[in-house]
Design goal:
InterPro entries: MFS, MFS_trans_sf, Proton-linked_MCT. Pfam families: MFS_1. It is built from 19 helices and no strands. By secondary structure, the chain is an all-alpha fold. It folds into two domains: about 190 residues, MFS general substrate transporter like domains (Growth Hormone, Chain: A, Up-down Bundle), CATH 1.20.1250.20; about 180 residues, MFS general substrate transporter like domains (Growth Hormone, Chain: A), CATH 1.20.1250.20. It is globular. The two termini are about 35 Å apart. About 50% of the residues are buried.
Length: about 400
């Protein structure tokens, strides 16, 4: 490898990492704030003729669109670079929020706060995820943790800010303010981030043509990976976790109002929940399930719900920080792009139907208990997948392939 190809393991990479974290805060953080929007919609019946299930599908559609567009975002990033892909995401996200401010029918929200926002979020999130490996070697985990933390910080800030904005400015102007912030902050992040790999590739395109050709399969979706039992366990981990995760983050604000908390207290609960390898991921996932089953079902006042939100926030979102390293460990670094594309597509169904399932369970039973139990058991099932993966990998190291 030529000297200029060696990652500097820091330097300007830290600027890219922080810029990536800020961008994630203004995409995933905004998405976490949908818990506050959902509580407002459900309490006020904001759109004539819309049912509770309709409102649940708005948030679900944004997650579905993010997962569905992820392979496209990967390919666009590979072809055109991080900056251009993020700029597309910035424009789409901004347009979604500004258009949502003019929504007068529920299907307007489906298209704006749902699909369009999700596509923009995916076009922002996927490029950011590819920044860290370009600049770091031994410090990749630290840098990755900093970048992913933007989702928790953004969720904390914008869950509180959204509730205050809706209360003082109204729904339409809340969307407009968020749209202006999305454009200003994400554009700044795009200008700060340097696509080191893409620039180097452009300078040495002819010299690296053979390497580029060999790397193309990494971007595609290799369906043969589904024959890998360990990878299927990772898929199970993802599916079960996402079923529980999005119910958790989207339901807490509504649950808070249901037990008599004020909208400000309910938004604080949602905000605190947003803060956040095989063995560690499995243990934290199991703990998330136990906390849901033991604490959330008994949370009937502000203090207990605060404790639950903080405890769950520390462990419930571990999927996002651990899935890429787990895929690399199971498949090898060269198959990470293909494996991650399949992971994103595999969580489309739970992303789409998790919150609607929660609302149906709540309506059918007349309480949140069924939804709470569902979330807890989903996390337990996800931890079983990782426990099984741990046993398989440990057995492989002792007796050979299984």
């Amino acid at each position: 490898m030529a000297p200029d190809e060696e990652p500097p393991n820091g330097g300007y990479g830290w600027v890219c990492t922080v810029a990536g974290a800020v961008s994630i805060a203004h995409s995933w953080g905004f998405n976490s704030a949908y818990a506050v929007f959902l509580a407002y919609y459900l309490d006020n019946g904001s759109f004539k003729g819309a049912s509770q299930l309709d409102y649940a599908f708005v948030g679900s559609l944004s997650l579905t669109a993010t997962c569905m567009v992820s392979p496209i975002a990967t390919a666009v990033t590979h072809r055109f670079g991080i900056r251009k892909t993020m700029l597309i995401g910035t424009i789409l996200e901004t347009a979604s929020l500004l258009c949502a401010s003019a929504a007068s029918r529920i299907w307007h929200l489906f298209l704006t706060q749902g699909v369009l926002f999700g596509v923009g979020m995916g076009m922002l999130f996927i490029p950011v995820a590819s920044v860290v490996p370009q600049w770091f070697t031994t410090k990749r985990s630290l840098a990755a943790g900093i970048s992913v933390s933007g989702a928790g910080i953004g969720g904390l800030v914008y869950s509180l800010a959204t509730e205050a904005a809706i209360r003082n400015l109204g729904l339409a102007w809340t969307f407009r303010v968020l749209g202006i912030l999305a454009f200003t902050v994400n554009t700044t992040c795009v200008l700060l981030i340097k696509d080191r790999n893409h620039r180097r590739s452009n300078r040495a395109c002819q010299h690296n043509q053979e390497r580029t050709d060999k790397s193309k399969p990494n971007v595609a979706m290799d369906l043969g990976l589904f024959r890998n039992g360990n990878f299927l366990l990772l898929i199970g981990f993802g599916v079960f976790t996402i079923f529980g995760y999005f119910i958790l983050i989207f339901s807490l604000a509504h649950y808070g109002t249901e037990i008599g908390l004020t909208p400000s207290h309910a938004s604080l609960i949602s905000a605190l929940d947003s803060v956040g390898r095989v063995t560690i991921a499995g243990v934290t996932t199991f703990l998330a399930g136990v906390i849901c089953l033991s604490v959330w079902v008994n949370a009937q006042n502000f203090g207990v719900l605060i404790f639950f939100a903080i405890a769950a926030g520390l462990v419930a979102g571990n999927f996002w920080a651990t899935i890429a390293p787990l895929v690399a460990e199971v498949l090898g670094i060269e198959k990470v792009p293909s494996g991650m594309n399949l992971v994103w597509l595999s969580i489309v169904v739970p992303s789409t139907f998790s919150q609607p399932i929660a609302l149906v369970l709540t309506e059918a039973t007349g309480s949140f208990l069924a939804s709470q139990l569902f979330v807890g058991f989903m996390y337990i099932a996800a931890s079983v997948c990782l426990g099984w993966l741990f046993l398989r990998t440990r057995l492989r190291t002792r007796v050979g392939p299984v």
